[in-house]
């Protein structure tokens, strides 16, 4: 069941285990080698790290993928052609990071649906987008989807989760607009519906998936009830599949959970916290864990939400979030809680984890959920630390 061939629209997957986006890397030889290792080791499908559709939507990571002009097409072709040699599909995730970036990285002021400051990035209050600027963003998403098709990707995934621009529109926590782009769920969804409609006119039936929050952990923000309505709208507008996640950067470890705060990594690699005086860092390491509420569960934390979304749509539902064992995967698929599972951190420590699961040589990932890998990406190439800085 887990290791049988399956499909999402026109995309044929080797099995039901997907490598979820890890949000890093240029389309270089090094990235190609990274994806090739995954393909060789029988991952069902690869979803790339997110690629920026505009310079002002680039993340705070200096090594973020980009797809904002045609010059990237040939570089991506090298990747897709190589991965297809292993009969492995590859989907590119595309995004605009909205207020969750830094102007020092992008060279532009941050923008958002509404002028609400992000408490994690601590940038200046973002500029509220005008209608003309919203249409410019829509146009750039469509152009990026067209480039992805020309580059040989099997599909694209729109990033509607984790507090980036499109999820900022969907959540009432970040969208306080009173015009046709805010208020009702239909209005908040309008930017996505415009992208899907215009993209279909451009690329036909080229598969467009999404990654979306089932909820975002913010007061007055996204709830499961609303995410179910959004999932129905996505299906109605031709979305090929939904990957279910949760959280925003302001929630801390809500999206990528662990039982220990990655303070050592935060104080070494984060743009803001690495410049704190040593005495403050020392005090914080003792006090912050005491006053920080641990977010549980640490594993399989989006499964119940994915199950509820799946009940309401016919398109494939993928679930991500703390999935680490073959037993969990079997349970999720056999009990019809989701159609596919995706993992991120387990593939960082063990790119061959699917092959190990299939051969029965290992039943659970060695990942300890330290989250150092995700913090350190601000400055260095993605790698596993296994809880130890070096």
Question: How would you describe this structure to a colleague?
Answer:
This protein has 390 residues and is of the alpha/beta class. The chain folds into 2 domains: 335 residues, Alpha-Beta Barrel (TIM Barrel), CATH 3.20.20; 34 residues, no CATH class. The chain has 14 helices and 14 strands. An 8-stranded parallel β-barrel has the order 3-4-7-10-11-12-13-14, surrounded by 6 helices. It has a two-stranded antiparallel sheet with strand order 1-2. Helix 11 links the parallel strand 13 and strand 14. The radius of gyration is 20 Å and the shape is globular. The mean pLDDT is 95.
Q: Which features does this protein show?
A:
390 residues, TIM Barrel, eight-stranded parallel beta barrel, two-stranded antiparallel ribbon, 14 helices
Cα distance spanning the termini: 41 Å
Strand and helix order:
EEEHEEEHEHEEHEHHEHEHHHEHEHHH
Note the total helix count.
Answer: 14
CATH superfamily of the largest domain: Aldolase class I
Beta-strand percent range: 5-15%
What CATH architecture of the largest domain do you see? Alpha-Beta Barrel
Query: How many distinct domains?
Result: 2
How would you state the average pLDDT, rounded? 95
CATH class of the largest domain equals: Alpha Beta
The count of strands amounts to: 14
What is the helix content?
25-40%
State the strand order across the main sheet. Answer: 3-4-7-10-11-12-13-14
Derived from helix and strand composition plus strand pairing, the structural class reads alpha/beta
Summary of the model, kept short:
This protein has helices at residues 29-40, 73-84, 103-106, 131-150, 165-170, 185-203, 224-236, 263-269, 278-291, 303-310, 326-334, 345-349, 353-359, 372-376, and strands spanning 6-8, 11-13, 17-19, 45-47, 51-52, 65-66, 90-95, 111-112, 127-128, 155-160, 208-213, 241-245, 317-319, 340-343.
């Amino acid at each position: 069941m887990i290791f049988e061939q399956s499909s999402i629209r026109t995309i044929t997957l080797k099995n039901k285990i997907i490598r979820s986006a890890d949000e890093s890397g240029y389309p270089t030889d090094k990235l190609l080698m990274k994806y090739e290792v995954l393909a060789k080791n029988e991952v069902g499908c690869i979803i790339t790290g997110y690629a920026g559709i505009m310079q002002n939507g680039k993340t705070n990571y200096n090594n973020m993928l980009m797809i904002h002009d045609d010059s990237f097409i040939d570089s991506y072709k090298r990747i897709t052609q190589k991965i297809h040699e292993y009969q492995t599909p590859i989907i590119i995730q595309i995004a605009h990071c909205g207020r969750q970036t830094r102007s020092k990285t992008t060279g532009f002021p941050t923008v958002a649906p509404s002028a609400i400051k992000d408490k994690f990035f601590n940038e200046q209050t973002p500029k509220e987008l005008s209608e003309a600027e919203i249409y410019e963003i829509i146009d750039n998403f469509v152009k990026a989807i067209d480039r992805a098709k020309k580059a040989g990707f099997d599909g694209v995934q729109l990033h509607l989760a984790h507090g980036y621009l499109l999820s900022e529109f969907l959540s009432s926590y970040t969208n306080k607009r009173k015009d046709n782009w805010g208020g009702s769920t239909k209005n908040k969804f309008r930017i996505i519906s415009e992208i899907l409609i215009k993209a279909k006119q451009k690329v036909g039936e080229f598969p467009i998936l999404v990654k979306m929050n089932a909820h975002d952990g913010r007061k007055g923000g996204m709830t499961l009830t609303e995410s179910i309505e959004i999932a129905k709208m996505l299906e109605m507008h031709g979305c090929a599949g939904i990957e279910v996640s949760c959280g925003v950067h302001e929630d801390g470890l809500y999206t990528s959970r662990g039982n220990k705060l990655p303070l050592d990594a935060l104080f070494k690699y984060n743009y803001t916290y690495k410049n704190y005086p040593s005495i403050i860092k020392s005090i914080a390491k003792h006090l912050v864990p005491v006053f920080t509420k641990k977010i549980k569960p640490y594993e399989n934390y989006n499964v119940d939400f994915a199950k509820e979304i799946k009940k309401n749509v016919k398109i494939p539902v993928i679930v991500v979030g703390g999935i680490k064992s073959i037993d969990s995967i079997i349970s999720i698929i056999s009990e019809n809680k989701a159609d596919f599972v995706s993992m991120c951190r387990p593939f960082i420590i063990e790119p061959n984890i699917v092959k190990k699961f299939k051969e029965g040589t290992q039943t659970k990932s060695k990942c300890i959920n330290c989250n150092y890998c995700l913090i350190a990406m601000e400055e260095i190439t993605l790698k596993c630390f296994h809880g130890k800085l070096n």
